[in-house]
């Protein structure tokens, strides 16, 4: 007599089977997408870990800074934001970049209109002299959405241009002109950090799409350098932040952040045991959440977070290299790079290696628009893997990733 089958392993005659994350991925994807799907599954697992850790950090921060009633309300909000983010990720995963491709031109125009609406009275919302948000029942930061639309549009143009990308005037200049236009719209809000992030994502997408490095490297240096110089000249807050970074001025918030990272030992003060937030440290749940990681979890926590982002970048690049479709691969690269670069800037600011800049840490920081847009970006990248088994006969130029 054979031993009974475990409860979790249904009988073969039942028509049922045990579901796992891997089999769910296989069912969700098109035939022939196994290689890209494996890396997509690992990337998704890393993102889930970051989301879970971010939720714990927000619970830790709220439990020690809010009253019980306010904390319960904040907890509901955090759960709602993460539920919406996961929903957006799955919808974007189902859509993929290809299903959005016929609508990229109107999406790009819509993103530009949203960037212009920040200056419209009654719609735009100004905070601390900056017009970066529009309020339509909830606050939305258009530069976040514009970054996604621009990356997708550039990926499409690079694929369609094919050999024309070897010509600067016929192939590169139109794409570069649109990118610089979006960059200037965000700079004028003013939001120099978001503008640089947008430009880096655009130029990285152009480069991986086949544009020569000289055609993207020079605009990057000139664009960022000119923007920083002009901002330091005409925007006092930018100059003050550069002075802080150069050591010519003192900023207590940055000093406390560095101290939290340096003095919390191997394991930190423990979950919800941090003290800085109760001493008036602002934005520790958003723009300086990495300092919260260092204070509560010490070196081990910082290495865990950095390791998760390193794994994120590794599996994202492996996913891109496994994608046979040119458009999906270029779009997925640009989307993932923007998320990874945002994380890099946040960690640099929190550790004093970059000028102070309000930039969230993807999936860990508080902030509804940032969390949802990061989920959208990763969902679209995963969606490229879902349809990777379908053939593509599009002409394309040489890839700077594969030669």
List the helices and strands and how they pair.
Layout: H1 21-28, H2 34-65, H3 68-100, H4 104-117, E1 124-127, E2 130-135, E3 139-140, H5 142-161, H6 168-187, H7 192-208, H8 213-234, H9 236-246, H10 252-263, H11 289-322, H12 326-350, H13 368-386
Antiparallel strand pairs: 1-2, 2-3
Structure in words:
- With 403 residues, this protein is an all-alpha fold.
- It has one domain (33-386).
- 66% of the residues lie in helices and 3% in strands.
- It has 13 helices and three strands; from the N terminus they run ααααβββααααααααα.
- The chain has a three-stranded antiparallel beta sheet, with helices on one face.
- The longest helix has 34 residues, at 289-322.
- The radius of gyration is 22 Å and the shape is globular.
Strand ordering within the main sheet: 1-2-3
Structural class: mainly alpha
The fraction of residues assigned to DSSP E strands is under 5%
Radius of gyration: 22 Å
- What's the tally of helices? 13
Beta-strand segment tally: 3
Total domains: 1
Listing every helix as H and every strand as E from the N terminus to the C terminus, the arrangement reads HHHHEEEHHHHHHHHH
- Low-pLDDT runs: 28-32
* Shape summary: globular
Helix content: 55-70%
Q: What's the main sheet like?
A: 3 strands, antiparallel
Measured between the Cα atoms of the first and last residue, the distance is: 60 Å
- The pLDDT mean sits at 81
Summarize the structure.
This protein is mainly alpha-helical and 403 residues long. It has helices at 21-28, 34-65, 68-100, 104-117, 142-161, 168-187, 192-208, 213-234, 236-246, 252-263, 289-322, 326-350, 368-386; strands at residues 124-127, 130-135, 139-140.
């Amino acid at each position: 007599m054979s031993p009974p089958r475990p409860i979790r392993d249904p009988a073969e005659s039942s028509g049922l089977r045990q579901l796992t994350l891997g089999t769910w991925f296989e069912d969700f994807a098109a035939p022939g997408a196994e290689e890209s799907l494996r890396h997509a599954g690992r990337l998704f697992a890393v993102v889930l870990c970051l989301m879970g850790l971010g939720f714990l950090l927000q619970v830790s921060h709220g439990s020690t800074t809010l009253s019980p009633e306010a904390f319960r309300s904040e907890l509901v909000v955090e759960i709602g934001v993460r539920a919406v983010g996961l929903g957006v990720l799955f919808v974007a995963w189902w859509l993929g970049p290809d299903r959005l491709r016929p609508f990229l031109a109107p999406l790009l125009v819509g993103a530009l209109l949203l960037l212009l609406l920040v200056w419209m009275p009654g719609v735009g919302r100004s905070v601390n002299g900056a017009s970066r948000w529009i309020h339509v029942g909830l606050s939305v930061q258009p530069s976040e959405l514009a970054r996604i639309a621009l990356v997708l549009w550039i990926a499409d143009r690079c694929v369609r241009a094919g050999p024309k990308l070897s010509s600067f005037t016929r192939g590169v200049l139109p794409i570069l002109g649109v990118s610089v236009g979006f960059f200037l719209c965000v700079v004028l809000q003013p939001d120099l950090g978001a503008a640089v992030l947008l430009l880096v994502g655009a130029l990285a997408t152009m480069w991986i799409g086949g544009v020569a490095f000289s055609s993207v490297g020079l605009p990057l240096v000139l664009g960022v350098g000119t923007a920083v110089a002009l901002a330091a000249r005409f925007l006092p807050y930018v100059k003050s932040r550069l002075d802080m970074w150069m050591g010519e001025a003192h900023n207590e918030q940055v000093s406390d952040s560095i101290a939290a990272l340096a003095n919390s030992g191997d394991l930190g003060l423990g979950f919800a045991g941090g003290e800085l937030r109760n001493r008036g440290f602002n934005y520790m749940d958003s723009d300086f959440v990495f300092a919260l990681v260092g204070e509560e979890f010490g070196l081990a926590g910082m290495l865990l977070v950095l390791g998760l982002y390193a794994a994120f970048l590794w599996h994202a690049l492996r996913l891109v290299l496994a994608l046979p479709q040119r458009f999906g691969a270029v779009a997925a690269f640009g989307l993932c790079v923007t998320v990874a670069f945002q994380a890099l800037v946040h960690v640099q600011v929190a550790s004093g290696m970059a000028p102070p800049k309000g930039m969230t840490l993807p999936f860990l920081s508080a902030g509804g628009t940032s969390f949802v847009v990061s989920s959208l970006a990763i969902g679209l990248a995963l969606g490229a893997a879902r349809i990777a088994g379908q053939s593509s006969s599009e002409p394309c130029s040489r890839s700077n990733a594969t030669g």
